[in-house]
Amino acid sequence: MSERPEAGVVDSFGRVHGTQNLFVGGGAIFVGGSGAVQPTLTMVALALRTADYLLDQFGT
After folding, report:
1. Cys-Cys link to 13, which of 42, 46, 53, 54 (CB 3.0-4.6 A)?
2. How many other β-carbons are positioned within 10 Å of the β-carbon of residue 51?
3. Residue range 30-34: mean pLDDT, rounded
């Protein structure tokens, strides 16, 4: 994750840089090999954050 396309694939909400309205959620955007033990709650939190953002932007 990065706010700049040169430094990461997605922004902090999981939106793919350079592709409008394409979001990636869950464990796919979690940085592997970070030494984290049991990162499940972090991945869930990232997915919920992306879902909240999508609802705010496009939801009813």
Report:
1. 53
2. 15
3. 67
